[in-house]
């Protein structure tokens, strides 16, 4: 059961629960005593070698089990771990119910033993991302990205000396050079290209069979996002985009940690001939509103690890799905004018 944590003194003064929560979490990054107190009653997402622990709900969906840190502590001690493992917990945030959230990788413990004690299974993130349908997906992605960042930044790239993390896990410092390292993300542009009637989707050979997505690409050093967008569309499918409009953004844990910025773009209906760069994409095609509408209705495209037959789209919590859904709404709105 969740035990809501009382956020001290801020709510009355700020008048907004959101403001209080944001300021409280910000304080936890620097106030080690407050962090230790928050950890006592926190909510913990567990990972094993970067795979999140998920539980099947009675309704058949998947979500991370609700674990209180004190319960996790007892389980870890029962499995022979000492208190130092809990110190590797990383602050994730604070829920709307004022529950402070942490994550912890228990990769040094026996996987099956933790699964049995906690009631769940550690599932690789790639697979987990097709199983998670609730609002927990971004939190799981953030936990995985932060845990990986700590694992791969334990040495200073200037001195080669070990770096030390702060208790919240929001930064690492090299005591020898004084360099402070903060978690990093790579900027990526994702764009849904339309010719007014159809939208353009592509697939990489590494995608599960049948899945198509919006075009995406990493920003090169020195580029604006508009330049990245035009370059990626030109490189991957040989088209020149005309109008560009921003939609939304998301953090994405693949391949490591990306900051995805989502756009809509149009091409002239007279220049729609696609020329696919097969070093980047296996295929790219125009899809009609009818095709997209039925693909959006494919439920559980990777049920029991097997891809659905035919053509299907990334999961609901992927920004590609959001852009595609937005496009269908615009198309329908246009056709009723
Ligand atoms: N959330 C979503 O809905 C969604 C949908 C599609 C793609 N994506 C993500 O977008 C990312 C970028 O798309 P893409 O693979 O088509 O990019 P891309 O077209 O730029 O091609 C990938 C290549 O770019 C190079 N590259 C340059 N900078 C890089 C960096 N910082 N990290 C890794 N590789 C870099 C590598 O050679 C790599 O093989 C993918 O990692 C994918 O996970 C997310
Ligand atoms: Mg690409």
Automatic annotation (TrEMBL):
Pfam families: NUDIX, NUDIX-like, Zn_ribbon_NUD. It is an enzyme of class 3 (hydrolase). Gene3D superfamilies: 3.90.79.20, Nucleoside Triphosphate Pyrophosphohydrolase. Keywords: Hydrolase, Magnesium, Metal-binding, NAD. GO terms for molecular function: hydrolase activity; metal ion binding. It catalyses: NAD(+) + H2O = beta-nicotinamide D-ribonucleotide + AMP + 2 H(+); NADPH + H2O = reduced beta-nicotinamide D-ribonucleotide + adenosine 2',5'-bisphosphate + 2 H(+); NADH + H2O = reduced beta-nicotinamide D-ribonucleotide + AMP + 2 H(+). Its cofactor is Mg(2+). The keyword Oxidoreductase does not apply. InterPro entries: NADH_PPase-like_N, NudC-like_C, NUDIX_hydrolase-like_dom_sf, NUDIX_hydrolase_CS, NUDIX_hydrolase_dom, Znr_NADH_PPase. Its EC number is 3.6.1.22. Signal peptide: none annotated. Residues 183-315 form the Nudix hydrolase domain. PANTHER family: NAD(P)H PYROPHOSPHATASE NUDT13, MITOCHONDRIAL, NUCLEOSIDE DIPHOSPHATE-LINKED MOIETY X MOTIF 13. This is NAD(+) diphosphatase. It comes from Gasterosteus aculeatus aculeatus. The lineage of its organism: Eukaryota, Metazoa, Chordata, Craniata, Vertebrata.
